[in-house]
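Structure ticket #2291
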Amino acid sequence: MSDRTAAAGKRRSQAILGGVAGALVFVALIVVFAVVRSGGDEPRPAAAQTSADPLATEPEVPAGTGGPLTQLVVTPLVKGTGPVVRSGQTVTFNYKLIPYKGGAVIDSSWSRKEPFTSQIGAGKLIAGWDQGIPGQTVGSRIQMDVPAALAYKDQDLRFVVDILAAQ
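Resolution: structure written out below.
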C-alpha cells in the first residue's frame, strides 16, 4: 500500500470518527436541553410524569363516613418535598371532587387533562381551599373533607388535591 493510499484511508477514518463525535455531541445537547427544560417548579403534564412520581396517576376518592361535617379535615396522602405554600401565591393543582358521602365525580381536573391554577388565600376559591392549602408543601397529595359551610353551602365535599407548583 502506498503512502498516498494510507493517508487517504487515515483521512477517511478521521472524517467518519469526526461525524460520529458530532452526532454524539448533538444528542448530548438535546438530552441536556430536555433535562433543564423539565426542571423547576413548573407543573408537569401527566404524559411527562413517570410512574415513580406518586402524583402521576389519577387518585381514587373513597366516600366519607359519618357526618355531617362540622370542620375542615385535611389528611396528607403523599408528603411533598417542595416549598411550603403561602396565602397569596398562585398555585397549580390537580384535583378530584366527590360528595362527601360518595357518589359520582362532581368535578375533576384529571378528566380535562389540564391542571387548575389559582391564587390561594385570596377569596377566589371556596373557603375550605383557602384554609386547607396554605401550609402544605408542593408535591403533596392531600384529602380535604370540606363542610358545606366552607364550600358551596349545599353539601359536604371530599377533594383529593395534588399540589403541583406554587409561585
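Closing remark: Residues 46-166 form a domain with the Chitinase A; domain 3 fold (CATH 3.10.50.40).
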